[in-house]
């Protein structure tokens, strides 16, 4: 056994990279759920983003274009869900599950020709002096743009929900869609916009997985990341800050257990592989144990079908 | 007198029903105008068209001499029309200020809005704290939020849909003072209610709707409440008659009942004690959200309490669930018809099976006796004059009054020793309400102990022998209903809470 093989600086640096796909998907789903829609298709949208982004980046040689297309792909897929649930009023749970199954199959189909291909890398911004700070520079200032974008997005979503009128209307729609309708807000339109935003975030997260984190394409490569993102949103009591905490915790434990496996620690591999899921859920359950307060933050109309009676 | 709003030939049809059929009336500036009618007469549809929520099929409206075609509520608000909804259009998890901002076209920044809310609520004697969560407010306070939301926009026309159904008599008096003040300032008020005495004290004119048509227009002060009721219903109503027998021994005794609410915005029950005798009706009044649902849960067995807190003829039954309580003849009919008292998408036969299986022997060794259940459902339908094609129809397809008659009848016919009903006539038309009240009186006359939880004080005064008030989860000591004045009842219900009479400069 050699714990010396685990370098804390490298570990901390790779934590941020490992967490970014889940963080992106979760922050998007947070907005969707705050508008009162439960989209269980995060996994499907992520993997669709992963392959669409990968394919476009390989074909055009531009990772930036790949990321943009992944966002468009995720949003397009989510709008299928949006139209089915918001306009045709289908069941959100069943439709979301179908979306995940569809995304997995669809990505496997497109991805057949891309197995084993290496994608072009996204250039990292040179943060100059900042990156030269010992330890901290390596941990915080040596990443690619998407990592910083995901952090900015968390702050932006928090500020949007808390301080802007549009954010207030979004929360109102998720809290009581009948009352929002009675006041003249366009419930369906607002929810479709939220769903598309969530889809774009999930698509971006998936593309980050296939283009930056791994980087290559394998079938089913999201491996439940979308489901973890969903769980994180709920256990984080629909708060942006806690979503960040949950995602980084998951990413951190995932990286740590890989290092432990490599170091040959005498713990069954199965248990190590399961540890990120276990640790994240246990910690978030403990945080959200106060049921009364968690219920206050939960969008009261979550998952309910809205039918304008008048 | 110049007309502020004129409505001519307004028509709106929904599949199978004409909600409004060539409705026409006008409201003058500074007038308090009543819109009277039973449930389903088309009042709600009419005001929704004025507020831009529903587009009329035909007809036109004129506001201050100009054609008025509101495409959305926000267009109506811009034109100076504001509305206080019957079922509050509020968001529980948002603060008072956020709720008010959502109902305004161009709200000022939050801090200035909070100051404005304080200022306006002071002026009109409707105190509000802008940063409190609406979910934690009482029904009266919630209504203040709705009213302040309207007042902040300086409306020309204020529509109020049944605003007093959740207020204590004292709160009603203060609300009326505020409304008169507003009318004196030139705001027209369209006031919807079916409380006739209130309309007679408050309103200058009344338009009466029946089945989507305007049937009469009158000055309500010149008519008696009975005359107004006849215009609304179209026939004479007979008041329920009571036999007035002597109550027997104590059947149900509740002592020191406390129950924390399962709902984060619910009210916990605190140390409730009362007893009911055989053949007696105990009326429990109170403004919604003061623990009514929790009390029903504790009495029906949906929420288990300490065994000794509820006793049936001395035997502790507090820990029993709904099934075992039915077995000992303690039955309940909850408030929400669709979803709590009945399963909306199941047939009447299935709904009969759900509560009567134990007492009527509709199930044996795990198998269901459908013919017996159907026969029982038919018996309820026949005995309570439920208008439906047959017991195979889904509960959802019945009108509110008919379903309520079925739900109450289903329990009454199971020969209960104790029957607990919550809001037995809520949203039910006048004739069905009269039938339900009569059946409760008859049931008590046959020796059952009946507990009626209701917000309708007139109803409680009409049928109960003793009256108790539920306020913030506590129950006042029951008093004989006869001779209680509205004033005394209001004080039992917690008085005016902290409302004050509007102190606008004269």
UniProtKB/TrEMBL annotation, chain A:
Keywords: Cell membrane, Membrane, Transmembrane, Transmembrane helix. One of its GO terms (molecular function) is transmembrane transporter activity. It is a multi-pass membrane protein. This is Nucleoside ABC transporter membrane protein. It is found in: Cell membrane. One of its GO terms (cellular component) is plasma membrane. The chain crosses the membrane at residues 6-25, 37-58, 64-84, 96-115, 135-161, 192-211, 217-236, 243-260, 266-287. It comes from Rhodovulum steppense. InterPro entries: ABC_transp_permease (IPR001851). It comes from the Bacteria. Its main location: membrane.
From TrEMBL, chain B:
Keywords: ATP-binding, Cell membrane, Membrane, Nucleotide-binding, Repeat, Sugar transport, Translocase, Transport. One of its GO terms (cellular component) is plasma membrane. It is a peripheral membrane protein. It is found in: Cell membrane. InterPro entries: AAA+_ATPase, ABC_carbohydrate_import_ATPase, ABC_transporter-like_ATP-bd, ABC_transporter-like_CS, P-loop_NTPase. Residues 5-236, 252-497 form the ABC transporter domain. Its main location: membrane. CDD domains: ABC_Carb_Monos_I (cd03216), ABC_Carb_Monos_II (cd03215). One of its GO terms (molecular function) is ATP binding. It comes from the Bacteria. Signal peptide: none annotated. PANTHER family: CARBOHYDRATE TRANSPORT ATP-BINDING PROTEIN MG119-RELATED, GUANOSINE IMPORT ATP-BINDING PROTEIN NUPO. This is Nucleoside ABC transporter ATP-binding protein. It comes from Rhodovulum steppense.
């Amino acid at each position: 056994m050699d714990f010396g093989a685990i370098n804390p600086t490298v570990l901390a640096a790779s934590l941020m990279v490992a967490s970014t796909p889940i963080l992106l998907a979760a922050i998007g789903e947070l907005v969707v759920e705050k508008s009162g829609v439960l989209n269980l298709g995060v996994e499907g949208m992520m993997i669709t983003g992963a392959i669409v982004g990968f394919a476009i980046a390989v074909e055009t040689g531009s990772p930036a274009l790949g990321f943009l297309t992944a966002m468009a792909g995720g949003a397009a897929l989510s709008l299928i869900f949006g139209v089915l649930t918001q306009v045709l009023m289908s069941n959100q749970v069943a439709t979301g599950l179908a979306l995940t199954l569809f995304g997995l199959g669809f990505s496997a189909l497109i991805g057949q020709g891309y197995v084993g291909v290496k994608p072009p890398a996204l250039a990292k911004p040179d943060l100059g002096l900042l990156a030269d700070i010992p330890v901290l520079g390596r941990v915080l200032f040596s990443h690619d743009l998407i990592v910083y974008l995901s952090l900015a997005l968390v702050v932006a979503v928090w500020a949007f929900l808390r301080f802007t009128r549009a954010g207030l209307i979004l929360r109102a729609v998720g809290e009581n869609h009948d009352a929002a309708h009675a006041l003249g807000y366009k419930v369906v339109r607002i929810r479709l916009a939220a769903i598309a935003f969530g889809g774009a975030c999930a698509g971006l997260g998936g593309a980050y997985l296939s283009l930056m984190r791994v980087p290559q394409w394998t079938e089913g490569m999201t491996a439940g990341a979308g489901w973890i993102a969903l769980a994180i949103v709920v256990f984080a009591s629909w708060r942006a800050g806690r979503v960040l905490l949950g995602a980084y915790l998951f990413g951190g434990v995932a990286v740590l257990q890989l290092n432990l496996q490599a170091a040959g620690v005498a713990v069954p591999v199965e248990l190590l592989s399961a540890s990120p899921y276990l640790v994240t859920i246990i910690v978030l359950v403990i945080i959200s144990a106060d049921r009364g307060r968690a219920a206050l933050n939960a969008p009261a109309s979550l998952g309910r079908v809205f039918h304008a009676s008048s | 007198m110049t007309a502020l709003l004129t409505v001519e030939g307004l028509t709106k049809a929904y599949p199978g029903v004409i909600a409004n059929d060539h409705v026409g009336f006008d409201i003058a500036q500074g007038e308090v105008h009543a819109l009277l009618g039973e449930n389903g007469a088309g009042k709600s549809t009419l005001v929704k068209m004025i507020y831009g929520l529903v587009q009329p099929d035909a007809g036109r409206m004129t506001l201050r001499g100009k054609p008025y075609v509101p495409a959305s509520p926000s267009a109506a608000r811009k034109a100076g029309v504001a509305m206080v909804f019957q079922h509050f259009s509020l968001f529980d998890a948002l603060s008072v200020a956020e709720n008010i901002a959502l109902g305004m076209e161009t709200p000022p920044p939050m801090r200035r809005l909070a100051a404005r809310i304080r200022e306006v609520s002071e002026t009109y004697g409707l105190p509000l704290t802008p940063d409190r969560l609406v979910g934690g407010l009482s029904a009266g306070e919630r209504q203040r939020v709705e009213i302040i939301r309207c007042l902040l926009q300086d409306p020309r026309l204020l529509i109020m849909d049944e605003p007093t159904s959740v207020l204590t008599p004292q709160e009603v008096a203060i609300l009326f003072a505020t409304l008169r003040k507003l009318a004196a300032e030139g705001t027209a008020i369209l006031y919807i209610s079916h409380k006739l005495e209130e309309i007679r004290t408050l309103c200058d004119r009344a338009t009466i709707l029946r089945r989507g048509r305007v049937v009469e227009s009158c000055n309500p002060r010149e008519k008696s409440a009975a005359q107004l009721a006849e215009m609304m219903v179209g026939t004479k109503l007979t008041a329920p008659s009571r036999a007035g027998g002597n109550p027997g021994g104590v059947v149900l005794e509740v002592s020191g009942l406390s129950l924390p609410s399962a709902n984060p915005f619910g009210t916990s029950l605190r140390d409730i004690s009362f007893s009911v005798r055989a053949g007696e009706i105990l009326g429990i009044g109170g403004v919604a959200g003061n623990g009514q649902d929790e009390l029903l849960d504790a009495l029906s067995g949906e929420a288990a309490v300490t065994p000794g807190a509820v006793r049936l003829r001395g035997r502790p039954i507090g820990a029993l669930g709904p099934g075992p309580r039915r077995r000992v003849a303690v039955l309940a009919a909850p408030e929400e018809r669709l979803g709590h008292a009945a399963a909306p998408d199941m047939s009447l036969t299935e709904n009969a099976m759900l509560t009567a299986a134990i007492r009527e022997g509709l199930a044996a060794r795990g198998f269901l006796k459908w013919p017996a259940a159907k026969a029982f459902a038919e018996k309820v339908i026949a005995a309570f004059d439920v208008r439906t094609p047959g017991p195979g129809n889904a509960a959802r397809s019945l009108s509110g009054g008919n379903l309520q008659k079925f739900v109450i009848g289903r329990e009454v016919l199971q020969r209960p020793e104790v029957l607990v009903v919550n809001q037995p006539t809520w949203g039910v038309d006048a004739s069905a309400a009269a039938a339900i009240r009569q059946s409760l009186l008859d049931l008590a006359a046959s020796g059952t102990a009946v507990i009626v939880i209701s917000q309708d004080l007139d109803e409680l005064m009409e049928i109960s022998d003793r009256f108790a008030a539920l306020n913030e989860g506590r129950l006042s000591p029951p008093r004989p209903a006869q001779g209680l004045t509205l004033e005394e009842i209001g004080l039992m219900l917690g008085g005016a809470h902290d409302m004050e009479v509007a102190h606008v400069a004269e």
